[in-house]
Amino acid sequence: MRIVVPAGGIGGARFLRGLKATLGIVSGQESEAAITVIGNTGDDITLFGLRVCPDLDTVMYTLGGGIDDERGWGRAEESFTVKEELAAYGMRPTWFGLGDRDTATHIVRSQMLAAGFPLSAVTEALCDRWRPGVRLLPMTDDQVETHVVVDGEEGPRAIHFQEWWIRHRAQIPARQIVSVGAEKAGPGPGVLEAVREADLVVLPPSNPVVSVGSILGVPGIRAAMEEAVVVGVSPIIGGAPVRGMADACLAAIGVETSARAVAEHYGPGLLDGWLVDEADAGVEVDGVEVESRPLYMTDVDAAAQIARAALDLGLRIKERRA
Fold first, then answer.
1. Contact 306, 18 (CB under 8 A)
2. pLDDT category, 29, cuts 50, 70, 90?
3. 262-294, pLDDT tens digit by residue?
4. Alpha-carbon distance 106 to 101, whole Å?
5. Where are the beta strands (DSSP E) in the chain?
């Protein structure tokens, strides 16, 4: 079985951990199943001369056993001496916490990019160490960054998504969310081929606007997925995001924070099946098959059960089509 998962950060990574478990994929061992992850790079940012790819790293660390499970991001057993020293020098920004272990990853990435390697090759090299048990492909090798338009003292101004998300905790109302460079970007090497060869595409409970949405915004990716069987897992339970501040992102694009509205935002042209939580049982979406299951990923076993439900739904839809 070949599964493609367009994934953002924490929610996507934890879902992938459950998907690996339900498919019996163990890093470093042969498996009849294969997972290709199309990683969001819209959150990427350059800080202190280093290129940081938060979502790619969160997937890599989570599946490779190096994640800080309590926070859901960054390295386990992390220290922040470099961050403290930079602050002592008066370096800005101070709101983004680069850990010492994590910084090593960004140094390697930045040096390879400066040497002319594309991000896809850099990501493959980094994964050689972590062996996440999936094929991790950046959505594009081109630079795409998510910016947020907010009201400033002198009128609207754009700030990087990371500043809006981390520094301001998405508390400043967003007038617009813009994927800068996306219209000129091309899918990363192997992305379209993976989608075309997939038995199923599964949308995890990642942010539908700035994670999955950014991936779908790269020309060619959504069109390829529309030809596949696509099942999604709702990131909204009972009218609230499972984690993070996806509601602020949805508000910025005029979408209600509900399981039904997110499915309608993706649209029946993309979605074939949609898993919602039991709190949203009874939700109906025109043109989409909806099922309800407990969707809280409290541990790996719970995530595996959600992943199994998504696979079962997708395979039933695929068999009916055949």
1. yes
2. confident
3. 999 999 999 999 999 999 999 999 999 999 999
4. 9
5. 2-7, 34-39, 45-47, 50-52, 135-138, 145-152, 155-160, 174-180, 200-203, 230-233, 236-237, 240-241, 273-276, 289-292
Q: State the DSSP code for 65.
A: T
What does the block give as tokens for 239?
Answer: 């009218």
- Is 86 in contact with 154 (CB distance < 8 Å)? no
The tens digit of pLDDT for each residue in 14-26 reads 999 999 999 999 8
CA distance 256 to 271: 18
| Dihedral over Cα of 184, 190, 191, 193: its sign | positive
What pLDDT sits at residue 321? Answer: 85
- Euclidean distance between CA atoms 260 and 238, whole angstroms: 10
CA 85 vs CA 69, 88, 100: distances in Å: 26, 5, 11
Distance CA 229, CA 198 (A): 9
Q: What is the dihedral of CA 28, 34, 38, 39, to 10 degrees?
A: -30
The 10 Å Cβ neighbour count of residue 322 is 5
CA distance 82 to 94: 11
Helix axes 54-64, 119-130, angle to 10 degrees: 20
User: 3-state DSSP call for residue 184?
Assistant: helix
CA distance linking residue 148 with residue 85, whole number of Å? 29
% the chain with pLDDT above 70 = 100
Q: Which amino acid is at 243?
A: R
Q: Which amino acid is at 237?
A: I
Cα distance between residue 214 and residue 131, in whole Å: 25
Q: Retrieve residue 8's tokens.
A: 């953002």
